[in-house]
User: Fold Para-aminobenzoate synthetase component 1 from Thermocrinis minervae.
Amino acid sequence: MKLILSGLFCGQRGLWELDVLDVHFFDSLKDLPDEDGFFVLSYDLSSETLGLRLKSSSLPAIVFVKVGQVKRWMGTEGSYKLRFVGSSLSREEYMHRVLLIKKHIEDGTVYQLNLTNRFDFEFEGSILSLFWDYYRRQPTPYSFFLDCEDFFVVSGSMELFLRKRFEKIVSRPIKGTSKDLRSLLESEKDKAENLMITDMMRNDLGRIAKPGSVKVKRLFRVQRYTTLFQMYSEVQAETKACFKDILMATFPPASVTGAPKVKAAEVIDTLEPHPRGYYCGCAGFKKGQDFTLCVLIRTAIGDKDRISYYAGAGIVADSDPQKEWQEVILKTKAFYSEQASTTRGYTLQPQF
Assistant:
């Protein structure tokens, strides 16, 4: 078993390897241990927090890792091969579902919804080298690799779900993606989408916050990454709630569901043929009552010879199906690139 992660989980730089002392699996937030360590929470837990019956994966809903000593990880060189074998939704199927969501919006069922896709690969070689290449192509603050022997998780997340220090809690929801800075800054569609999700996060935090303490501190900020630009906002609050109660009030993250959250999750379950599993869940460290959790976007889940990478887009009333599909593909570029296909053992690029 192995855990490697970005130091920004703990206020450091670079990548760090942590000794794995023990790993425990749980199926419910009711069983969540009140201990320090690294947690991975599956989107499957949405059934529990939202009171719904949603499709689920075969993997444990909660992974809890007890960790020991920490040492800097300098990367690894090795060969691997990825062979694209298919996706849960084709280009045409994805765009058709965008139109269905727009009809739901027109009918007032939802106002915004996050539609995702799963890209499947056969895998051979060093998964550590794949993670190292993924990180080097697009360093992100919440990257990590967790190998549980029967399955592994590779994440290049850049989204802060929740960070709590003493009684202060912060969330930085991401909505708005582009390869061009100016177009993102001038996009009224992306700003409207971002505002909806920010308002949802205000409401979620308001359920466990001290009265009057919920505030939007940043709005429509843009962060540059190697392959794209992302728009985020920041919501802050004060709370005395415990870890479990905070999760019950806020999970799943607003940015990966839609508005209103419960209805969006119901519609998502009818439109996506795949269970999300750990993708769109969250992961991070807890120490005492303080913690840092990222949203599990830009994430792949695999076993010994298969790996699936997930990506999605937020759909609103004026979404263009073709542009939403292009956004999904843009979000895959850091995971597999033309350069990697010729230098690191990749097979040819998938033809989406």
Notes: The domain at 2-336 is CATH 3.60.120.10 (Anthranilate synthase). Residues 170 and 236 are 4 Å apart (CA to CA).
